[in-house]
Amino acid sequence: QVQLVESGGGLVQAGGSLRLSCAASGLTFSSYAMGWFRQASGPEREFVAAISWSGSGLYYADSVKGRFTISRDNAKNTMYLQMNSLKPEDTASYYCAAANTFVVYTTPPSYNHWGQGTQVTVSS
């Protein structure tokens, strides 16, 4: 059974930093492209960042480019999202997702597995 477990969320002041982790089990982690999405309000999840299976392909939403860094450690079956210079508009539940593909996608339907999410709240 595939499990993705996010951690590292919390409350931070604007300008601060957080590091999210996504621990994966039940899958061959190094064969999956991985992504981070967020959901503030409403039904749709917004793309944040994605990383290829090898870690060489990195993709970011324009809204986080230059502030967030996605990475992965295939030996630890874990993906990370370093978030710096946080803004109130970054407040959301953050979800990690896994796609059983060598192609990196930025749309939620392309991902096979999802975590339960971790809340990030940025105060002004």
Summarize the structure in words.
With 124 residues, the protein is mostly beta strands. Helices cover 0% and strands 49% of the residues. It has no helices and eleven strands. Strands 2, 4, 5, 6, 9, 10 and 11 form a seven-stranded mixed beta sheet that branches. It has a four-stranded antiparallel beta sheet with strand order 1-3-8-7, with no helix packed on it.
By DSSP, the count of extended strands is 11
Q: What's the helix-strand series? A: EEEEEEEEEEE
Structural class: mainly beta
Q: How much helix, percentage-wise, in residues?
A: under 10%
Features:
single chain, 124 residues, mainly beta, 7-stranded mixed sheet, 4-stranded antiparallel sheet
Strand-helix topology:
Blueprint: E1 3-7, E2 10-13, E3 18-25, E4 33-39, E5 46-51, E6 58-60, E7 68-73, E8 78-83, E9 92-99, E10 113-114, E11 118-123
Parallel strand pairs: 2-11
Antiparallel strand pairs: 1-3, 3-8, 4-5, 4-9, 5-6, 7-8, 9-10, 9-11
